Amino acid sequence: MRVILGVSGGIAAYKAVLLLRLLTEAGHSVRVIPTESALRFVGAPTWEALSGQPVTTSVFVDVPGVQHVALGQTADLVIVAPATADLLSRMATGRSDDLLTATLLTARCPVLVAPAMHTEMWQHPAVEANVATLRERGVTVLDPASGRLTGADTGPGRLPEPEQIAAAALALVADAGHPADADGSLGSDGSADAAADLTGARVLITAGGTREPIDPVRFIGNRSTGRQGYALAAEARRRGADVTLVAANVDLPAPDGVRVVPVETTQELADAVQDRVESADLIIMAAAIADFRPEAVTAHKVKKTGDTVVWPINLVVNPDILAGLVVNRPDVVARRGGARQVIVGFAAETGDATGDVLEHGRAKARRKGADLLVVNPVGGGRGFGDVANDVTILTADGDVVASLTGSKDAVARTILDEAARLLAGDVSPV
Ligand code: CTP
Asked: Do 154 and 250 have their domain in common?
């Protein structure tokens, strides 16, 4: 489920950190939108680190993404905690002078507000009138708890405990007709059957296609769009994983809650993977990686002369990153204290005179040694872009564990079902 956590500027902002933790640990994708004054209590790095998502207070950041509209429109739930008297006033009068208030105007999902302020403020007729207005409009405004306030004073005005706010918010979504899981919590995509089988797993995914420069303007590339890798990242995140996506030349929006590391060349991709290999529980190599690169890259654009007919370019082989991961896995696993690391590769095949797609896939599975190899036919309009995929998943021995034709989302679900079983140790390691 996509949750917006609005935080306004009161001392109780520190409790919203715990609320954020509760929501992300339950597998929800949480985007924190503080007000400027909230950042005086808890800084942006804390929100960013714990949510895995960027934090801004302004509508003038990421303008092409039209965040002040998009965030509210795509949210399943908005929680504002703590809500100060000032924020309640701005909400009640329909102000939109920062990202949080603009988001509140565009959200059509359930909205829960947890006020926190001094007793005198909470009981002031102006605040009471604003709360009444918001309740009339369908906003759920929690009554503050009673107890010790910031100074020596006590009385109604304390922020309720994070567990109570989370429970009230999730109940609100369930009441609004969004299905809840059997245990009463909501799946990370709000659906009744959303699996949380990757909760806590650190997943590293490569996507897109690497480019190898020839000169400052030209490169050797491939047709990969990155869609399958992005679908895998979004699905892994939905299932509760901590996901890093190494994206080679991909022109797609980052999936919610996923860390994206942009790269261009095979060497950059190899370095980005190497930096993260030791902490990864699951690695999925979905990127189409250039097997060769120009031996020399010229510093200046290569010019054609009047009689140029042929331009020979010497290509040298790139390292096979996937094969390297498999070979070095025992060292990595030892350093990680014996925890099993699962590695998944892809094989884009066309078939030729020496064998069909599956035969080439089987040979590659044995050669690369990954736990799973996802074989998909490419060429002739198949495989690349926004099209259904037709895949067969093989073990390192070349045995078929699953095959399906479906959308890239459906393929992602099946791959992660198999990978999650391996991670859980349901099947013997390869
Ligand atoms: N791969 C890799 N490093 C490379 C080339 C490929 O890690 N230098 C990975 C891909 O990310 C993919 C798998 O290996 O997961 C298979 O890629 P593919 O291009 O199908 O196979 P190749 O090894 O390049 O073999 P060939 O081109 O001979 O089919």
From this structure: no
Residue found by looking up tokens 């399958």 in the block: 228
Q: Which protein residues touch ligand 1 with a CB less than 6 Å away? A: 285, 287, 289, 291, 318, 320-322, 345-348
What's the CA gap between 328 and 336, in Å, rounded?
Answer: 13
Using pLDDT thresholds of 50, 70 and 90, give the confidence band for residue 430.
Answer: very low
Whole-prediction pTM: 0.59
What's 306's domain CATH number? 3.40.50.10300
Of all protein residues, the one whose alpha carbon is nearest to atom 24 of ligand 1 is 291
Which domain covers residue 246, as residue numbers?
Answer: 197-424
Helix axes 13-25, 44-51, angle to 10 degrees: 10
Query: Quick one: 81 and 205 in the same domain?
Result: no
- How many Å lie between the centroid of ligand 1 and the Cα of residue 430? 20
SS3 395: strand
In a domain, residue 95? The reply is: yes
* Residue 270 falls inside a structural domain: yes
125 and 231 in a single domain? The answer is: no
**Is 183 part of a structural domain of the chain?**
no
Q: Which residues are catalytic?
A: 222
What is the Å distance from ligand 1's center to 398 Cα? 16
Over residues 340-385, the pLDDT tens digits come to: 899 999 998 888 888 889 999 999 999 999 999 999 887 665 566 5
Are 158 and 224 part of one and the same domain?
Answer: no
Q: Which residue has the tokens 């109940």?
A: 171
Whole-number Å distance between alpha carbons of 233 and 179: 24
61-91 pLDDT per residue, tens: 877 767 788 899 888 999 999 999 999 999 9
